[in-house]
Amino acid sequence: MLLAVFLAGASAAWGLDFVAEGEKQLSLNDPAKAVTYLEAAMAQGVPDERLLMDLGLAYQRLGQPLDAKRTFRQGAELGGPQKKVFLLNWGIADYLTQDWAGAEEAYTAALAEDPKFAEALLNRANSRVNAKNLAGAAEDYRAYQAAAPANPQKDKIDQLLALLDQAVGEAEAARLAEETRQKQAADAAAAAAAAAEAEKQKAEAAAAEEKAKQDAILAKIRESLAAATDDSKALSTGQSGVKSDDGDFSLDQ
Length: 253
Hints:
Elements: H1 2-14, H2 18-27, H3 31-42, H4 49-61, H5 65-77, H6 83-96, H7 100-113, H8 118-130, H9 134-147, H10 154-235
Helix pairs in contact: 2-3, 2-4, 3-4, 4-5, 5-6, 6-7, 6-8, 7-8, 8-9, 9-10
């Protein structure tokens, strides 16, 4: 609070407009001095779009993308007429830190504000290339060519689109081929499983038939044994069952 009061007093005393001085230093390509003046202006009160845009750009040029991102996000949250530009610059800050997903999200938000925002289309296309979303990149490059037909990179982008279309076609062919291979493998596995199941059922049926045959043979054996046992009981002789003939037998008779 004391710092804010002191800076406000200093600004009044020196007759300096910190924002204007920060912009001057930016024009002189001295982002370090620009940050000093613009941060001083931030300390003086509630920032507006102009101040936040200048400060974000100064951070960006100074190689401080995280500070730039924070500042651009703050500017976008104001919801003013420059919202789409803040979102664009927010995406650029993410891009510089190789946060492709964050950059695409910011550019998409900018395009929600203005679907024909050419810079956002071009930058999102670049982010999608880095994220290996080639089909999405090609779509954005075509939309950019339509939104800015006289852009100086038209020929290069046309060449890039030809390469992207080829890459997308090859990737789609590879995907479909892999899909076919997986289906064939699945079909072969299913056929092998069906054949194995059929063999299993066949073996189980043969085993059941053999078991039935063995059971029938065993049943006959048991019947034979039972009959033999009955006969042996009928022919059985023990001491009590021996009959003797008390008559004399003579060979001379």
